[in-house]
Predict the 3D structure of the following.
Amino acid sequence: MGSHMGSHPGSGRRRFLTSGGALAAFVMGAVRSLRGQTAAPPPYEPQGLLAYGQPSKFTGHILRRTTQRPTAITDTALMTPLHELDGIITPSGLHFLMDHTNGIPDIDPQKHRLMVHGMVDRPLIFTVEDIKRFPSVSRIHFLECNANSRPLRGPNRESVQLIHGRTSCSEWTWIIAEGGESNKYTMSIPLAKGLDDVIVAWAQNGEPIRPHQGFPLRLIVPGFEAIRAVKWLNRIHVVDKPYAAWHEAGNNADTAADGKGMWFRFELGPKAVITRPSGGQKLPGPGFYEITGLAWTGGGLVRRVDISTDGGKTYQEAQLQQPVLRYAHTRFRFPWRWKGEECVIQARCTDERGEVQPTIEEAAKIFNTTVDYFYQADHFNGIQPWRIARDGSVTNAIAGA
Amino acid sequence: MGSHMGSHPGSGRRRFLTSGGALAAFVMGAVRSLRGQTAAPPPYEPQGLLAYGQPSKFTGHILRRTTQRPTAITDTALMTPLHELDGIITPSGLHFLMDHTNGIPDIDPQKHRLMVHGMVDRPLIFTVEDIKRFPSVSRIHFLECNANSRPLRGPNRESVQLIHGRTSCSEWTWIIAEGGESNKYTMSIPLAKGLDDVIVAWAQNGEPIRPHQGFPLRLIVPGFEAIRAVKWLNRIHVVDKPYAAWHEAGNNADTAADGKGMWFRFELGPKAVITRPSGGQKLPGPGFYEITGLAWTGGGLVRRVDISTDGGKTYQEAQLQQPVLRYAHTRFRFPWRWKGEECVIQARCTDERGEVQPTIEEAAKIFNTTVDYFYQADHFNGIQPWRIARDGSVTNAIAGA
């Protein structure tokens, strides 16, 4: 990258935002859209599936699903069919979704505005096109709901979709505002500096974010629970303290059964989930199988995934799909020959912090609580084993389930 | 990865395929599907957009489009709207598509079979579920039609979609059959060894490949022209010579205007395309813009992209979006302040082979032909500049256009 724009070393945060006001005024004057202005439409245009393709009618069973027995907490969840998917990208149409019962707005992006206020001389108001003119970056990141992996008992415990399907992974595009890189742009894009601690995204898997995921603008906080990823973003309150501190404070309000604060709620813990074979599936007979699934961590990189096919007595390292990306789902694979015996398979994730995914019993011991606590706890990342019966059927084998 | 399966060092290709016959017979006996067998449907299921999401109605203009003036060659092309997209993943519904005029089959995967014959003791026949049971890998790769970037004159020359939209990039999942890795599986999956030179894919961007892209099985040849990526794959003829040799021979049939063979047709050359600002768009006024686009090469990795804003007199290096992936689209970005003058912007790709994308004049000189030759040539990878007028309008500025 050339340095022809120069840096602006003497400027503090407030000064950037002051400058930002002037730029914003200019940018807001840019009423004509850079995008969407192609040449006049061609004489004929493709229609329907030729214009925008859809899945085969033979894969119509691959859908987001709700819990089997709705509760106050979980009846608003639409979960990703992880057992039907490959690779690490979740198709946008199958991205998990919470809190849809009040309806999904389909906002006109021409009318949408983002207000930035708080620690600024005066509020800044941006159109979606203004936002899209700033330098940008695209990264593959997962989102995970704080309530994921919770229904380990009852009618929702039998499939990987219903237990673990509140996580998905997409390529997000957003305003660039990252450490050293932002210096290159400070002369011209002070907004990026002003938004140093938040990520304003407008594209998911290449195209504009879909309405269910927050069209036209969404906040993204890599590695943190998805409830922080505000959809249909229209207001940012800039405050004079680290965003992480606010986040941490909010989470520390949660306490364990013994009254202690749960430190592991600050970021999502390491988690590995076997998606195939998984609950509700049936192995057709003894022979070769690839055990595969997804691992992720709020700590950044997945370092390794180990597989046990004997209920946790012994583990062997699985292969991680390359490249392993920070705050992204990581696909793991493990070749396995099933001899037809009853057995329990499970996966265990270790992340770059050295944190090892615990069993549910280990988690209870570490946090001085009971196993029962985790059946309703947020951010549960305990190992969830699958039992394979002699007839090949697969069921949830977690302790006490 | 553990070595518990052992290797099979003494076995040759033919022996693997013989063993493969026995395995295939077993695998074919596995009539029950591992996938698609979730628990009984929950009491209620989401419908419509809640079950499978779609784009906003406000982005309905983001579609595949055909050429404005159809010809015998190009009237079957449905091109990707590169100027409307971000990141490197092309949404599956917008993946480019050729030769659709005979209709798109939506094949029942339960009835589909893949036959492998030729250098095998007897033909092997696999179901789609058989294929999916083999060890697999997912990678992000582009496809590009040999005819891409050709309509540099006439009514199709004015937008990046109509000129360059015959390329897209997806995460593909396929049978693993790669060099050293395959040894780990040779005891149990000789088919992979037998298919060492071809890639049989079944998933694209996480979900099953869509009908327009070859559901249920497609051949993928990373870095080679997309016409080799056979859709709805049902037959593989195993031959006793390198696949690349056959491919090369086929391409060497093409000759330049002076009768010489065109060596650069063996693999796709390095190419960078500015997608924004691009033809048909209009800059609303002087100020900051991010010049962005996509680069790729049949040679593997994009090493660098340089941007000129003065018609090629001087270049400065653009930033490459990380991670840069082999045989994948690579997003580049370059911050730029437009002062309102008329100017020509262009991008130039250099790949890991050291091959530098030529201007159209350089290409003509190198290959001892005329500039006119390239207006109908396959595999054209010359630099295609955009002219920005004082009113901000953007048009194709290629020589002689």
